[in-house]
Amino acid sequence: ISIADRDIAVDIPNAAGPGNVDVRAAARIAWLKNYAGIDYYVPDSNNPQGRVVNPVLLNIPQGNPNPAGGAGRAAPAAFDILDHAQWRDVVVGITALSNANKPNVSAVKILSDKISQIYADIKPFANVASVQISETPLPDSASVDQIQNKVQELNKVLEDVRESFDGFILNAFAQPVRLNFQIPQVVQGQGQQPQAAATAQEAAAAAAIRALNDGENNGIIQLYKDLYKLHRHVALKKSMKQLGDE
């Protein structure tokens, strides 16, 4: 999660007007899930059909544990997602944790390495399908446009590979690859100053990394499973042929 992501999240407003938390804090609840993997609601262990607020957000100690004058400590309270100050603190904490104990590597470098690894994984299949793979990594100084183009290029390569083997074996290669990459809002308002450009670059790269990591929904994980299934199918046919020749 980049600093730009943090700044956008801190300013996520509540929906105006009446309504329950689900409605008024829908955007904040979505941010917790999409950026931090935190479910605001979890299944109710006492009711299979129900949901409850995530226990980690409940009964949080409040105030100074050793208040002056020997006054009693404030009672525990639940996290109020509608309260801006509490929401800000949670966003800052999540952002700090996402960057804790990590090497000083830019988001662009992490993104480039992820794409290179995916290309290395699928290259044998791409070669068979005559799908061209770019060997050029993203430069550390990649612009937002370069990042966007690289993600689009990756999406096309993965989809071309999938389409090439669609129908080759049963129950495989049916899920399209769709990388849900959107340029963060903060990037749209950045100027041309070096600091602003760097912030926009990091925000775009971080958004691209999240898009790649969403493998269950973007089709990448299923493509990997199908390619493995194809590999086993081909290996089995080869083994059966060798067995028949003996």
From TrEMBL:
InterPro entries: TSA
Listed Pfam families: TSA
GO cellular component entries: membrane
Assigned keywords, A-Z: Membrane, Signal, Transmembrane, Virulence
Compartment list: Membrane
Main subcellular location of this protein, as a coarse class: membrane
Superkingdom in the source lineage: Bacteria
Membrane topology according to the record: Multi-pass membrane protein
UniProt-listed NCBIfam families: Orientia_TSA56
Protein name: 56kDa type-specific antigen
Upper lineage: Bacteria, Pseudomonadati, Pseudomonadota, Alphaproteobacteria, Rickettsiales
